[in-house]
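Page 42, continued from yesterday. The earlier attempt failed because a stray header line got pasted into the input along with the sequence. Redoing it now with the clean sequence only.
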Amino acid sequence: MTSSMRRLPRRRFLRAPFGDRQAATFGIPGRNRLGIPAAVLALSVTVAGCAGAGAVTGGEVAAAAPGASAAAPGTTQAMPGRTSADSEASSAPAAPAVLPGLGARTRAEIPANARQVLLVTGQGKDSSTSRVVLYRRTGAGWEPGATWPAHNARRGWTDDHHAGDLRSPIGVFSLTDAGGLLADPGSRLPYNHSRGFTIGGTGFEGEPLEGSFDYVVAINYNREAGTSPLDWTRPLGADKGGGIWLHVDHGGPTHGCVSLKKEHMKELLRTLDPGRHPVIVMGDAESLER
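This time it went through. Structure tokens are written below.
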């Protein structure tokens, strides 16, 4: 197995993929330890996860769709722009003192030491489309980067996420770990390069899932921070789901994750800085305004 690991304490690996799952369609795979042959990690299993519907060999995806078949991925991603020249500063809009679109309750959940916030705003409670902006906190306020289109779960958003509900969890979650099928593109977060991120099959709209896990960032919902995104640990229990990631967009809704274009994911990996304690704030617009 081709795998390159760095700075990841207490790594645990799955014999097969994981994520939000439907108990009626599959069993929970056991865990692997380092050194297990690639053939075991490449075992295709039908699971309900984040990318859509398909057979997965690693990561957080997918209830199998009729005719789905295993395939190897291929992907890319990007990062927000910033005002770089001092001469432009005077003409640039003032950075907001508080993050726009967030109510007092949501703002209170953001850790005081967070200096990077990835704000994911869903179009509606039952919508699978959203927009993403990466903010960085400066002495002048919250400086926004570019706005990116994104997909979230097929049925929208929920305050009480459960495995298989096809909704993305609303909340504020830290971002500490990354990985992918492709080699590290320059991630500042610890990066797990592994064939365990292989995925194939098709999504809800018949789109191919190949390449969806070329780059991923684990969202710390019901997982243990400081471990590979492939880690199976579920502190809240399996019923509360897990394997919620930022990953490469495949052109359709997910099972629970947030997906961005490949170039945006790639640049996001190069921008998220553990020294700035990045978090993701995610939910539909109405819920985030609370």
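Notes: Confidence is low (pLDDT under 50) at residues 1-48, 51-90.
Reminder to self: strip header lines before submitting.
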